[in-house]
Amino acid sequence: MISANDLSPAELAALLHFHADAGVEWLLEEEAVDRFAEFEAMKAARRPASAQQERPAAGERPSVGERQTSPRPTAAARPAPVSGPQPAIPDGEAVQQARFVAEAARSLGELKTSIEAFNGCNLKHSARSTIFASGDAESGIMVIGSAPSAEDDREGLPFSGKSGQLFDKMLAAIGLNRSSVLLTQVIPWRPPGNRAASAAEIDICRPFIERQIALAEPQAILLLGNFAARFFFGENDTIHGLRGRWKDIVIADRTIPAIASLHPQDLLTAPVNKRLAWNDLLAFQAKLKSLSLLRN
Question: What are the phi and psi torsion angles at 90 (to 5°)?
């Protein structure tokens, strides 16, 4: 096995990036931990106090007086229960809490603080960062991706890394940039190993993204990726069947036109689809111009 001491700084950095992309969230401890000993100690601590008392020797019976005066173990004599992880919040209750937290926020700044303090979604416990909307909230233009990538999680910003660089080029091609639109993700925390979010996790996160839209009040939305398109359009088709067509979505009693396209990561995986994305971007640009959100 190659020792870390034999690797150059560049090789070490590449190795760390590899593990992060693979979903590794924790490194080994500096010193070995005997989990078997910990488990035995936990079992011993949980035994009732009566089991710890001395029992008569084999063949020896306590006298009647001894039986009458033998003290019974009291609650004070019993060992204190071993503290463990707090029970998880039931999904239904977590959804209600998320709705309350989202509706209570009166600005994007308040909502960001509330989401960062929210602990009702398991995704938060494995993520490094909470990904929230960034850019110009007054632009009337909103771009929503599916879920944070490993690069997003490390940087704390949506559309980071190589896919973010391609995304910047896509925006520039239609006269936009990061500072001129509002960027966010449907899910604020990266699912471990980039797995798909579960139905319960989606329900818990839904109030947060809907509240971001309600507070920003965009006039047009660009959805990037299969999950984002399905989430807002309520359909199960692939991104190739959902892209390129304007649809109205209703958020907080407001009807907003939205169009879906391929995510930049999809284009890195299959560059042949760039022509499809380009057609979608041109349609988005035309809509922005018709709404006077983009200069000719």
Answer: -55, 145
What pTM does this model have?
Answer: 0.71
DSSP state of 22: T
Cβ proximity of 142 and 213 under 8 Å: yes
Residue 171 to residues 101, 144, 186, 293: CA-CA distances in angstroms? 33, 13, 19, 14
Q: What is the pLDDT of residues 49-97, one digit of tens each?
A: 445 554 555 555 554 444 444 444 444 444 444 434 444 566 789 999 9
In CATH terms, is domain 91-290 a member of 3.40.470.10?
yes
- Neighbouring CB atoms inside 10 A of 124's CB total 19
Closest CA to 146 of 211, 249, 253, 222: 222
Q: Distances from the Cα of 68 to the Cαs of 58, 62, 74, 203, in angstroms?
A: 20, 10, 16, 60
Measured CA to CA, the distance from residue 166 to residue 269 in angstroms comes to: 12
What is the share, in percent, of the chain residues with pLDDT greater than 90? Answer: 68
Encode pLDDT of 186-206 as tens digits: 999 999 999 999 999 999 999
CB atoms within 10 A of CB 276: 18
Could you tell me if 261 and 166 are in contact, meaning their C-beta atoms sit under 8 angstroms apart? no
φ and ψ at residue 249, rounded to 5 degrees = -115, 145
pLDDT at residue 139, as a whole number:
96
Task: Give the CA diameter of the chain.
Answer: 103
- Cα angle for residues 267, 248, 291 (degrees, 5° grid): 85
Q: Are the beta carbons of 220 and 260 closer than 8 angstroms?
A: no
Q: Residue ranges of the domains in the chain?
A: 91-290
